[in-house]
Design goal:
With about 260 residues, this protein is mainly α. The chain contains 14 helices and no strands. The longest helix has 27 residues.
Length: about 260
Amino acid sequence: MSETAAVSAPATAIPRGNAGTMFNNTWTIAKREFASYFSSALGYIVIGMFLLLVGVLVFFVFNFLERNEATLQSLFEGVAWLSWAISPAIAMRTFAEESRTGTLEMLITQPVRDWEVILGKYLGATGLFAVALGLTFVYPLAISKMGDLDWGPVLGGYLGLFLGGAAYVSFGVMVSSYTKDQITAFFVAFVVGLLFFILNYITPALGSAAPIVVYFSPRFHFDNIARGVIDLRNVIYFLSVISVCLLATARSLDSRRWS
């Protein structure tokens, strides 16, 4: 009797999501996602192009050498302009590539929760952005040797850049989850990210609607943080964008399971 019961017990008796803790599963997926960028040329290309373009913007477009003062305004301008461009390149493959190859369906049926997959992939992609951003820290270190640098706005600026980049990455992850083509995911995230970025520049033409529209601009909230004063409202804005995008990603994965 006991042998019969053992044989007839289903192989899937363990409920989905009980294989390990949420942290361990998320961390494992994040490490795999982060490492995958460097198992191909993508990670090196993204970081290399980002640093090259930052240098071009800092020294040739925003004329850092002509300012004759210990300020990182040129750097922040350059990185802010590039964040919405580099983030789609980082995030485009997170789900789109696995959808194309058919491995996404295998992944979401494993004994891990959808949120563990989403957070793991998101953290892996954000980690690559953090590495690219961290490498620009040579600029404030060099400038601090040249003059008296106020580190408050510097740290505030880097926090704003990271939160802005993390928000753009979350949007790229969301778009990637809705398509099987990386190029499509890149261009959709790129164009929409650009539209939100330039909101801060077109508000003078919006009249009385400007205060409402400008609130949705990542650049507006970054500028506030970059002044060195951390306003909780600006942090909440970026965290809200990330949360909404990841929730939409979860909805996308859930629809795939039932389609």
